[in-house]
């Protein structure tokens, strides 16, 4: 089949996150794309930088699970080898090889990833949940007397890095500065380089402090793990967790709050006193995922994928939003998705999100705190007028979510 035109990443972004996308609209869009190209579509990441989009669930799974054929290391991309990926491109930070599990495969990835998994397994989840609820409650306390707030700028963008900083044993002031640096990294270009340096400075100082004064926190656990050979590798592990988790968690919090405050199925239950937060999170993960495309993989040899010939050195972008809506997985009945956690929004395989459990704890606490503590909270603007960010290759979430509620004197 010969495609009639080339799809760009921006096309998929706009289609996935059009105001009426959640539900039938998204299914119609992806059905049309599949009818034209099949489960794997040729396209462009930016002008002149050709990629493939893996939209089918099976093809998505094959790409992210098989690192022997599809590498995460950007050095294997022909566009990098040909000098087409420049420092001012948003994709640049994600294909610049660094000494961490995010950018590597095989034995090196396993050595660098295992300490992260081991450290996270030692987190006291009950104690951590209490810490996160404290952060959320402090932010809500600042809103109560106003009777109105912006649930993005006053709340959601602050929570993930403050929560992750707490897990690393860092103070609130460090968490806020890391949040700003992480946002620069995801913006690409010169700002990305500045953001990496700012993050590194904060983290190196904290690692030195923890070497002098070990604590029962994630930083000390990473320092003590023999799988990380020096402070640079500890720093890189921390940077990956900060950058990867920040935008994903902001997006999940804001998307879930928007769904619960605008969709009558959830808003009605809210007014009736039944807060189905977990169900709302799962619906967001299926139908409006916080990360709609993940970092490209690079073919290590010629291979057939979804009826297309992928050449050695080609880039394949795994499209979460499209894979989640593959009719093979969901059919035409949305009720089949309830309780079904086979979505790909946490990814899977060797590079699956290592912090799914802490991330879920953060989202649950953030959403429940708003719904439980802001009396009669409602959106102050129609849901279809809530604007989303446009500066990310992977994330699209509300940049502002004004709400009103009954003022409460604290």
Automatic annotation (TrEMBL):
Gene3D superfamilies: Cytochrome P450. InterPro entries: Cyt_P450_B, Cyt_P450_sf. This is Cytochrome. It comes from the Bacteria. SUPFAM superfamilies: Cytochrome P450 (SSF48264). GO terms for molecular function: heme binding; iron ion binding; monooxygenase activity; oxidoreductase activity, acting on paired donors, with incorporation or reduction of molecular oxygen. Belongs to the cytochrome P450 family.
